[in-house]
């Protein structure tokens, strides 16, 4: 991208201000002198930037008693009130809307079932639900809405804020971020849910200590979010890491993608339920009943030694391990995190996954690899929280808040 000289200066200012804000956020409390040292920016610039951040209410001064006694030193710290944002997950069957403060803490949330009729337009429903949520939960005198994030499955162009393709809700080329900004007059961020969740693990979860990680999500399908050098790995086509469609069994069941034997046909929740039901029908002994069968019940049965549940989950883990080995060979991550209800049988599944990865992945990539459960198993709004965090720390959202104050 080519900037004009003036635009360039503005952009550099934005990046520098963001790095100052990031340092204050990381250090919790820091003096202007230390800020200048750590940021390697001139003390005069620090004075100017911190004044701007303070005027916008994003940081405040606190007195910190010097260890040598005497006059308390003045430190800077990030301000949380009154900034809040919405994080929504537009799922296949449910919509979750959550209210978070600028630090990411959840204040309240709300969940509603989505109409299963794909001909009913989900976008007006989403906008109406957000409107209702705002009037029920936000006090405009005390709270200041700074952003709205929406994550969903499907193909999403983060840069342009467009839902490119979301077959479950019959959505194609919907400029959702633009619609949200027009309706609610705040910046809006949208992304694929699993990709955004992998960023949440990096910022707040189990991947905070690494630069390269992979989140594998086992749900109705099997998906992945890849973090490479601290950033979501993506490309021009916006769609990468379709681990669910790695062919694991060439003679396997047909997949909705048109192929056969994809990982998703064996290792997704839907596929696991189908396998167990089929085996019960064939007369295999188990404590499980085919009625109201859930992944939770299967994991409990497996944990209690039910042979059928154990065997099915071991096979699933082995095939997940084979697919993970391919990802490991391609990306050599420091961590692979697994999200999904099957994690309830972790004592059974992790040893099998690790064993299979050891057998199938490149020997030199395995010794330092950690395979573990993801932190955010049941907190869908954390995906959107990560998107807002990214916009704040990289400067665009920070810039919006500062200039909104100027206006
Ligand atoms: Zn497939």
From TrEMBL:
InterPro entries: ATPase_NBD (IPR043129), ROK (IPR000600), WH-like_DNA-bd_sf (IPR036388), WH_DNA-bd_sf (IPR036390). It holds the Pfam family ROK. GO terms for molecular function: DNA binding. It comes from the Bacteria. Keywords: Carbohydrate metabolism, DNA-binding, Transcription, Transcription regulation. GO terms for biological process: regulation of DNA-templated transcription. Belongs to the ROK (NagC/XylR) family. This is DNA-binding transcriptional dual regulator, repressor of N-acetylglucosamine.
């Amino acid at each position: 991208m080519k900037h004009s000289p003036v635009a360039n200066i503005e952009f550099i200012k934005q990046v520098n201000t963001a790095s100052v804000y990031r340092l204050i956020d990381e250090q919790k409390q820091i003096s202007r002198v230390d800020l200048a040292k750590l940021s390697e920016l001139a003390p005069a610039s620090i004075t100017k930037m911190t004044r701007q951040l303070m005027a916008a209410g994003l940081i405040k001064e606190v007195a910190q008693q010097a260890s040598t006694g005497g006059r308390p030193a003045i430190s800077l710290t990030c301000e949380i009130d009154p900034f809040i944002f919405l994080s929504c997950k537009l799922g296949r069957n449910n919509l979750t809307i959550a209210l978070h403060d600028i630090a990411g803490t959840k204040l309240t949330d709300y969940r509603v079932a989505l109409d299963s009729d794909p001909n009913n337009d989900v976008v007006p429903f989403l906008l109406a639900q957000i409107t209702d949520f705002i009037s029920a939960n936000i006090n405009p005198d005390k709270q200041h809405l700074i952003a709205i994030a929406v994550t969903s499955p499907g193909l999403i162009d983060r840069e342009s804020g467009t839902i490119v393709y979301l077959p479950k809700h019959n959505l194609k080329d919907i400029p959702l971020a633009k619609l949200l900004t027009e309706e609610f007059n705040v910046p809006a961020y949208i992304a694929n849910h699993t990709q955004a969740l992998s960023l949440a693990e990096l910022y707040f979860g189990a991947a905070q200590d690494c630069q390269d990680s992979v989140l594998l999500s086992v749900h109705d399908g099997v998906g992945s979010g890849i973090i490479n050098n601290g950033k979501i790995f993506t490309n021009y086509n916006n769609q990468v890491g379709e681990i669910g469609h790695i062919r694991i069994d060439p003679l396997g069941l047909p997949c909705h993608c048109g192929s056969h034997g994809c990982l998703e046909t064996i290792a997704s929740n839907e596929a696991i339920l189908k396998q167990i039901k089929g085996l019960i029908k064939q007369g295999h002994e188990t404590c499980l009943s085919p009625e109201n069968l859930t992944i939770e019940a299967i994991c409990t049965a497996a944990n209690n030694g039910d042979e059928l549940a154990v065997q099915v989950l071991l096979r699933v883990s082995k095939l997940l391990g084979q697919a993970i080995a391919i990802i490991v060979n391609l990306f050599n991550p420091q961590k692979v995190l697994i999200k999904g209800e099957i994690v309830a049988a972790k004592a059974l599944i992790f040893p099998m996954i690790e064993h299979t990865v050891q057998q199938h992945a490149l020997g030199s990539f395995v010794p330092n690899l950690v395979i573990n459960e993801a932190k955010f198993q049941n907190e869908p709004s954390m995906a959107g929280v990560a998107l807002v965090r990214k916009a704040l720390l990289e400067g665009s959202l920070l810039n919006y808040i500062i200039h909104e104050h100027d206006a």
